[in-house]
Amino acid sequence: MTTHTITAPSAVAAQSITKTYGTDDTQVTALDDVSVAFHPGDFTAIMGPSGSGKSTLMHCLAGLDTVDSGQVAIGKTVITGMSDHQLTILRRKHVGFIFQAFNLVPTLSARDNILLPLDLAGTKVDQAWFDQIIEVLGLGDRLAHHPHELSGGQQQRVAVARALLTRPDVVFADEPTGALDSATGTEVLQLLARSARDMGQTIIMVTHDPHAAAYADNVVLLKDGAIVGRVEDPTADTVLAALAELGA
What we know:
It is a single chain. The protein is of the alpha/beta class. The protein contains eight helices and ten strands. Strands 6-7-8-3-9-10 form a six-stranded mixed beta sheet, with helices on both faces. Strands 2-1-4-5 form a four-stranded antiparallel beta sheet, with helices on one face. β7 (170-174), α6 (182-199) and β8 form a beta-alpha-beta unit. The model is unreliable at 1-7 (pLDDT under 50). GO terms for molecular function: ATP binding; ATP hydrolysis activity; transmembrane transporter activity.
């Protein structure tokens, strides 16, 4: 397959993407002609009512799901039409993931969980970058611990470190604070904001929580599979007001 490139300075971009599920009377339009770009170093939250297409959009942007039409690009590479093998290689090098459930390997130490993507790729660790991430995330005295020996917040910090270690073009965070108490969730959101601000990391986060979205640089609003607005420099109040207008 031929790899196409785009010239727009976007970490991730979607152009006129559509996605439907089911057929005939059961067909549901999850994404309806969505075009959106996420700039390098931005922390963006994706929000909307239940069933608005938030998770579908994230999955399509990350190449975890296919689109029916339109194009998705990560960096300058159009991923639409890539094979599963090509997508796996691209994600391994250019995409990081942070999940609500942490997805740590219970038999591995925190250090080995963080290094796992590099081990799978057969890539050597950049020790200086590793040390910087560990310092920023405050994990220096927890590297030998296994997941069951860590608090929820510490486990999520390990997941954040794992996502950042490969210097991906973008980190996708799917409800990253959903399983955490409010204090620990705040800690993780501050770390994500700092990752964007201090490390230039591009972060795209799906959340239903206006307080979580307030840590982002901007909020993309979805309803019925379409982008219907954006909130710049969000606060919990402005996000709540925007969601209220959508009937969320």
